[in-house]
Write a structure and sequence with these properties.
With 128 residues, this protein is α+β, with helices and mostly antiparallel strands. The chain is built from 3 helices and 5 strands; from the N terminus they run E-E-E-E-H-E-H-H.
Length: 128
């Protein structure tokens, strides 16, 4: 985690001669109790000319039970697996590069995350 203190810029307008003043202030992070962490194991990234949408999903395999023959039939009959949206984050295009750089530096600074096998980037769901 970065040791830098987070700062926010607050642009204010003065009533005196229309002078714009920029002031750096400390950012206070607020974690509302009603916001709960959600598990996500699938993600879709979509962009338009000004915004990037990160949609996070929880993809759970269906329950298949029974003897070997029943399980095989259930899997053969399976045509879809539902991915439930758990949250969507909308990022202005001009902030996206900074968000990606922060995530990449977090991964590179953490040997456990850095060592992860990234071969699971397939966009289809697989039942194994």
């Amino acid at each position: 985690m970065s040791k830098k203190k987070a700062k926010a810029s607050n642009d204010t307008h003065s009533d005196h001669a229309g002078v714009r003043v920029r002031k750096e202030v400390r950012m206070k992070y607020v974690f509302p109790s009603e916001i709960k962490p959600m598990f996500a194991n699938h993600m879709i990234v979509q962009s338009d000319e000004s915004t990037t949408y990160l949609s996070f999903f929880s993809l759970q395999p269906p329950v298949v039970i029974g003897d070997e023959e029943e399980v095989k039939k259930q899997i053969d009959d399976l045509t879809e697996v539902r991915a439930h949206l758990v949250t969507q984050v909308v990022i202005p295009r001009d902030r996206l590069k900074n968000f990606v750089e922060v995530m990449a530096s977090t991964i590179n600074a953490n040997p456990i995350l850095k060592a992860l096998d990234h071969s699971h980037s397939d966009t289809s769901a697989r039942l194994t």
